[in-house]
Amino acid sequence: MKRAIYPGSFDPVTFGHLDMIERSAQIVDELVVAVLINSAKNPLFSVKERVSMLEEITGHISNIRITSFNGLLIDYAQEVEASIIIRGLRAVTDFEYELQIAQTNRIINSQVDTIFLTTSLEYAYLSSTIVKEVASYGGDISHFVPEQLMDRIYAKYR
Ligand code: PNS
Questions:
Q1: Is 46 left (phi over 0), alpha (psi -120 to 50) or beta?
Q2: What share of the chain is helix, strand, coil (3-state, %, to 5)?
Q3: pLDDT at 117
Q4: Is 120 a catalytic site residue?
Q5: CA-closest residue to ligand 1 atom 5
Q6: C-alpha distances out from residue 95 to 103, 108, 127, 128, Å
Q7: What is the DSSP string of 79-131?
Q8: Most CB atoms within 10 A, among 12, 60, 61, 147?
Q9: Residue 157 — φ and ψ, nearest 5°?
Q10: Kind of pairing, strands 3-8 and 84-89?
Q11: Residue ranges of the alpha helices (H) in 28-91?
């Protein structure tokens, strides 16, 4: 049984995340999507909101579980018995930071490996930060997030 964990802030989840989730779920037996609870980033959405948005847009995927976690990712991976951490790489700029984190995690627990998937080209520019920036000015975010989440995102800026 290959179980992987796909962690992130998902504040909010984007088409880029969804693409990663769909592709990862095809590679492993079970995918645990894990929302970081204790973020220093002052998130726009509560953990509950982020989990429920993820649940709504991944209803078509059967081998997936949406959870949240506090503390170190590597400890949570062990807790849920995941042997793989999946991260997406959009561009070279992501690489240095991701490599450092992956190496740190591997020093702490060598039983868990990090696998990088390259983001689909159409979403290479996309980030939750970009979505929030555009939404904050009332711009069109339909290219960035699933339709059923759009109102919830705009509502945060009303
Ligand atoms: O979507 P993000 O913000 O790029 O996700 C970052 C995340 C949640 C994967 C990362 O911040 C994380 O794993 N945080 C938990 C604390 C941790 O384990 N840090 C890495 C070891 S120093």
A1: beta
A2: 45, 20, 35
A3: 97
A4: no
A5: 8
A6: 12, 20, 15, 18
A7: HTT--EEEEEE-SHHHHHHHHHHHHHHHHH-TT-EEEEEEPPGGGTT--HHHH
A8: 12
A9: -105, 0
A10: parallel
A11: 47-57, 73-79
Per-residue pLDDT of the chain (158 residues; tens, 9 = 90+): 999 999 999 999 999 999 999 999 999 999 999 999 976 779 999 999 999 999 999 999 999 999 999 999 999 999 999 999 999 999 988 999 999 999 999 999 999 999 999 999 999 999 999 999 999 999 999 999 999 999 999 999 98
Distance CA 32, CA 63 (A): 9
What pLDDT score was predicted for residue 39?
Answer: 66
Indicate if ligand 1 lies below 6 Å from the C-beta of 43: no
How far from chain centre, in Å, is Cα 46? 15
Residue with tokens 């080209």: 121
Q: Is 88 in the pocket of ligand 1 (CB under 6 A)?
A: no
Atom 22 (ligand 1) nearest CA: 101
Q: How far is CA 27 from CA 1, 5, 41, 52, 146, in A?
A: 12, 12, 30, 24, 23
Q: Taking the model in full, what pTM does it have?
A: 0.97
**Residue 121, Cα to own-chain centre: how many angstroms?**
17
